[in-house]
Amino acid sequence: MSSTQPATPWRHAKAHRGGAPHPGIPEAGGRAEPGTGALARPLASSLREELLAIMREIFERNAVAGRLAYSPDEAAGVLGISPELVYDLLRTGQLESVKAGRRRLISRANIDAFLAGDTGDAA
User: Fold this and answer.
1) Helix 108-116 crosses helix 72-79 at what angle (to 10 degrees)?
2) Are 21 and 9 spatial neighbours (Cβ–Cβ below 8 Å)?
3) Higher pLDDT, 17 or 43
4) Sheet strand arrangement including 103-107
5) Whole-number pLDDT of residue 84
6) What does the pLDDT look like over 18-76, one tens digit per residue?
7) Which of 4, 27, 47, 110 is most buried, most CB within 10 Å of its CB?
8) pTM over 0.70
9) d(CA 114, CA 85)
10) Spatial separation of the C-alpha atoms in residues 34 and 36, rounded to whole Å
11) Nearest-angstrom CA–CA distance, 96 and 119
């Protein structure tokens, strides 16, 4: 091999100002390897499905987080504690709730007061 030719088998697309080929830039062949598009489509499809699943999960979390009142199980999820602990907090009066028929509801304001340390017995 002569010293004027590059050591790689690449052909160069453009020449430098002096007419010499620019080292490290391969010549564009004009088309990709056959089968590249066939591989890219399923990958893009699975990526799209994964992103949609993540978006659905975020939407569901935000839908629960934006409510005015929660069931004890939902409040446990919002607070990041167990439902048993929520029921203990309700029983001891540390977390207030209201009854709506047979349902027990914990308002967002009651959750915020609990988190701020306000137990409601300031006397």
Assistant:
1) 40
2) no
3) 43
4) 69-70, 103-107, 98-100
5) 97
6) 555 555 555 555 555 555 666 666 667 778 888 888 888 877 776 666 788 999 999 99
7) 110
8) no
9) 13
10) 6
11) 8
Of 25, 114, 38, 13, nearest in space to 72 by CA: 114
Give residues with Cβ within 8 angstroms of 67, minimum separation 6. Answer: 74, 108
Q: Are 71 and 103 in contact (CB under 8 A)?
A: yes
Q: Where are the domains of the chain?
A: 37-66, 69-116
Rounded distance between C-alpha atoms, residue 106 and residue 86, angstroms: 10
Give the integer Cα–Cα distance in Å for 98 and 72: 11
pLDDT exceeds cutoff 90 at 111: yes
The C-alpha R_g of the chain, in whole angstroms, comes to: 32
Bridge-based pairing state of the strands 98-100 and 103-107:
antiparallel
